[in-house]
Amino acid sequence: MPPAGKGRGGEPEATIVDEREVRRAVAAAALGNTVEWFDFGVYSYLVVIISQVFFPPTSSTAQLLSTFATFAVAFLVRPLGGFFFGPLGDRIGRRTVLAITMGTMALGTLSIGLIPSYATIGVWAPALLLVARLVQGFSTGGEYGGAATFVAEHSPDRRRGFTTSWLEFGTLVGYSSGAALVIALTLALTPQDLVAWGWRIPFLLAGPLGVIGLYLRFRLRETPAYRESSSSERSGAAATWRSLRTIFGEHWRPMLVCIGLVLAFNVTNYVLTAYMPTYLSAVLGFQHTSALVLVLVAMLVVLGLIVVLGNFSDRIGRLPIAGLGSIALIVLSFPAFLLMGVGSIPAVLGGLLVIGLMLICFSSTMPSTLPALFPTEVRYGAVSVGFNISVALFGGTTPLVAEALVAATGMPTVPAFLLVVAGVVGLLAVWSTREPAGRALPGAEPTATDRAEARERVEEERDEEQ
Fold this sequence. Notes:
By secondary structure, the chain is mostly helical. Helices cover about 80% and strands about 0% of the residues. The chain starts with a strand and ends with a helix.
C-alpha cells in the first residue's frame, strides 16, 4: 500500500497498511518461526539420548557436557550468520533472506537425523553432528532479527506490540510441539527403540516442515518500510562491510542496549526451554519423560499470555513490562529453584511457572523493542548482529554453564545465580532505552490502519519533534 503523503490533497505523510497483509505477514512469520524453532528445539529435548548415541560411553556427566558443548557451539557460530544474513536482508530484502534461512535450517536439522551413531562410525559421528549444528546455528543467525524486523515493519505503530508478540507465540509453539513429539515417542517406543531409531523422527520431519515454511514465506510481500527505502540505501551503503561499519560506528549505543536486553531474555529462555528438562532429570531425579511433561505444561500455561502482554504493551509501553521481568529475575530466581528443590510435582511445576512468567515479560516485548532501536537501512543487520552476539556469549552457553556450575559446586540452586545476573543486566538495559510503544520505527514513516489514524500519528510525531 503506498504511503499517504501530503502531496495528495493535504493527506498526512504516513503509510496506510493493509490489515489483511499484516495478518498474512504475522501468520507466515509466526508459522515459519514455529517450524524454525521446532527444528532447533528438539535437540535440547533429546539431549540425554543424543549424548548416548553420538559420544563414547564414558561417564553420563561427560556425555551430557559434551552434548551441551555441541549445543553451545551452534550458538557461537550464530553471530557469523547474523553478520552474513543481516546486512544481506538490508540489501536484497527481508522476505528473500528469511526464505534462505528457513531452507538452510531445515537442511541442517534433517542431516542430524541421518548421521550414523558413534557405535557405527566412531569419532565421525560427533564430528558430523558438530557440522550439522554449525549449519543450524549459521542459519538461525539470520532468523530472529529478520522475522522481528519483517513483522515490525509490516505493523501499524499502535499495534506493533501485539502483532510482533505472535513471533514468540510461534517460538514457544515450536518448542512445545517438539517436546510433545518427544514425549509421545518416549511413551510409544521402548527405550532401546528410542535410542536405536526413534529419536531420529523429529529431525527427519525437518524436510517436509521446511518445505511448508518456504511456501509460506515466498507468498509474502516485502515490508512497506523496505519498499519505501531508496535504491542507494540498498546498494553501496548497505553492502555488508559498509553496513557493519555503520552499525558499530554510528549505532554502538543501541547495539549495547540490544545485547543487554537479549541477554536477559535469552538466559531466561534457555534456562526454561533447554536446561530445565535435563536439570529435572539429572539433578532432581525425575524420569526424563516426566521432566519433559512438566516443562511442557509450564510452557503451555504461559503461552497464551504472550500475546496478552504484547497487546498490553501497546497501552502501557514495553519498558514497564520488561523492567518488571528484570526485577522479578533478581528477586524470584532463587525462590523458584528452592521451590523446585522440594521435589514434589506441584512444587516443581510452581517453580517452572515462576520462570515462565518472568520469561514472557521479555518474549512479549522484545520483538517490538529491538527493531525500534535501529533505522531502516541497517535494521535487519543490526538486530541480527546484536541479538546473536548476545545469544552466542550468554544465551546458548547457559545450559553448559549451569550444568558445569551444578557439577562443580553440588548446589542445586546455583543456576538461579545466572538468572539474577541476567535480571541486573536487563534492568540496566531497560533504564537506558527510550520507550518505543506507539512511535514510528526510526527512519520510517508513521504507519496506521486508516487515514484518520494516519493524521493522528503524523500529528503525534510532529509534536514529539517539537
